[in-house]
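Question (not urgent): is this output format expected?
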Amino acid sequence: MIGTAQAAAGMDYKKALAQGGKLCTNKFASSWASDTEHTVSGWLASEEEWNQGFNKVLCTVRRVDGTRTSERIPDPATV
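Got this back:
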């Protein structure tokens, strides 16, 4: 996990599922996935948890091809 992205106030769960990855990409891709090997994606809690107020998207960085990331991905502040 590289951070969280706050969903817009009132965003429902279905819209969050559709746009969660984009929220993370907009916030973190230029820093964490500036090469062609990595991408940023988002993860949401369950719909029940979302409706109870857990309305942040958890953002991660992963390999574009889906293979396991075994190397350490440098923190952008250290690059």
